[in-house]
Write a structure and sequence with these properties.
This protein is mainly alpha-helical. It has a single domain, classed as Tetracycline Repressor, domain 2, CATH 1.10.357.10. 75% of the residues lie in helices and 0% in strands. The chain is elongated, with a radius of gyration of 19 Å. It starts with 7 loop residues before the first helix and ends with a helix. The relative contact order is 0.10. Keywords: DNA-binding. It comes from Streptomyces fumanus. This is TetR family transcriptional regulator. It holds the Pfam family TetR_N. One of its GO terms (molecular function) is DNA-binding transcription factor activity.
Length: 183
């Protein structure tokens, strides 16, 4: 007897709801019952759709990564791409996403085995995009160095912004940094 076919649309809808829940409530105490109650589904339904709590967390992180990557779009050059990323990540409506991102990052560094997939992608996804945005004529070593500086600088600025809320000061620093990038 075959099981019920997977409803991919419902699964995606449920995953988005779980991601939104996690953004709002954090993931440290993520457990089946509160998530199920908040989403109006049974714990059995969540287990059926996600398997284990660890698998659900991996899917949450994957969807969060998809949301961030999808927001960037096609490349328009390094400075324009980095500006688009900065505008998105520094948008106050996205604060919850990035507080979650940094919370997971901290946990991943303490438990790398549990968060191996996250750690595999947290730099490389963006690194590849930033290298490509510099154009095919850019020396690969220079492109990697520049991409590394961009990632580190934007993450540092974002941490500062999330910690202090000093939007004017941090945005001024971001603008100064953006001006150093090739157009």
């Amino acid at each position: 007897m075959a099981g019920r076919p997977v409803d991919h649309a419902r699964r995606a809808e449920l995953l988005d709801a779980v991601v939104d829940y996690t953004i709002e409530h954090g993931f440290s105490d993520l457990s089946w019952r509160p998530v199920a109650a908040a989403l109006g589904v049974s714990t059995t339904s969540l287990v059926h759709r996600f398997g284990s709590k660890e698998q659900m967390l991996q899917e949450i992180l994957g969807r969060l990564r998809e949301r961030i990557v999808a927001a960037v779009g096609p490349s328009h050059g390094l400075r324009a791409d980095v500006r688009a990323v900065w505008e998105r990540v520094s948008d106050p409506r996205r604060g919850g996403e990035f507080r979650l991102f940094f919370a997971v990052y901290g946990h991943a560094l303490q438990a790398p085995e549990q968060f191996a997939d996250f750690l595999d992608h947290v730099v490389t996804d963006w690194m590849n995009s930033l290298r490509e945005a510099q154009g095919p004529d850019t020396d690969p070593v220079t492109a990697t160095r520049t991409a590394t500086l961009v990632i580190a600088t934007l993450r540092g600025l974002l941490l500062d912004l999330l910690a202090t809320g000093d939007r004017r000061r941090v945005h001024d620093a971001a603008e100064a940094f953006l001006a150093t990038l090739p157009a």
